[in-house]
Design a protein that fits this description.
Layout: E1 2-6, H1 12-22, H2 34-42, E2 56-61, E3 64-74, E4 77-85, H3 94-105, E5 111-113, E6 142-143, H4 147-155, E7 162-169, E8 186-191, E9 193-195, E10 204-206, E11 213-220, E12 223-232, E13 240-248, H5 257-271, E14 276-281, H6 287-295, E15 299-306
Parallel strand pairs: 4-5, 13-14
Antiparallel strand pairs: 1-2, 2-3, 3-4, 6-15, 7-14, 7-15, 8-11, 9-10, 11-12, 12-13
Length: 307
Amino acid sequence: MIRFRNWLPADLPAAVFYWNRAFADRRNFFPIDERDFRDRVVANRHGEEAFDPAGFQIATDGAEWVGFAHAGRRANRGYLAFLHVREPHRRHGVGGALFDLCLSYLAGTDEVFVDGQCFNPYYGNVQGPFIPFWGTPEGISVPQGDREALAFLERRGFVPRFEAVTMERAPADSPVLGEKGEGNATFRSYVNACPALGSRPDDLVPHARFDRHIAWAAVVGERVAGRVIAYSMERARSGLWGIYDLEVEEVARGSGLGMALVRRALDSLAALRVETCEVLTIPALSPAAYRVYERLGFGVAVRWAIF
């Protein structure tokens, strides 16, 4: 008989076992251990990701986990961070029951959302450049080809708003390009730290606890007008890095600064003998960024549904 309950402290080994068995075939999966799940999920106290056991619903058959769902609150909104049911127990109402329990937990919020766009809690990397548990360089998401998951969410009122794409290329490849478009900018590189957009180039935000990463900043005058951060995803695959963030101030957009930053990041990764660099982008929201990556030789690898 299927039973439902909330998270208990003793569940950590079962959570890790379930995760590693259920998602081993997902893109950029790596085997997690108890420390990973504890630090990223149940011991997370970071703002809107602060873990609440009442929001973590588990379906069991005897002592075995057969599915789970994780919900949280973001101000006056509720979010569904994760929901999964193992194949033998699908189409028997388990997923729907887990979803309804999450809605009950989120009662009183103005709306409930599923978001893999920029807020990808617990299982993604909202806090900084470190590898998600699987999926894109920014977090887990629903592949466009996963018709069962898309249909499940659509029946409950969630329809994809955008399509995101994972793009990839080998840093050592050299596409044919025109001028770098650097203008009057100077460029500075950083390791495991980076200044914020609009700040002074020496006002660094340290990221020592995150995965190894490098950053380039475009400096105009004494102000950071653009930056790019790339980080190691080698827990998933040897030689794999991802672009975590590319930002250019609005007044500097269209000047070629973004392309110049990504080219420098690729040059740095090539020097490190990185084999593949991935990036996630949403063409409908950031057509200029998509064109930058396309011109730089990135090709589409996977398409994702963004809710």
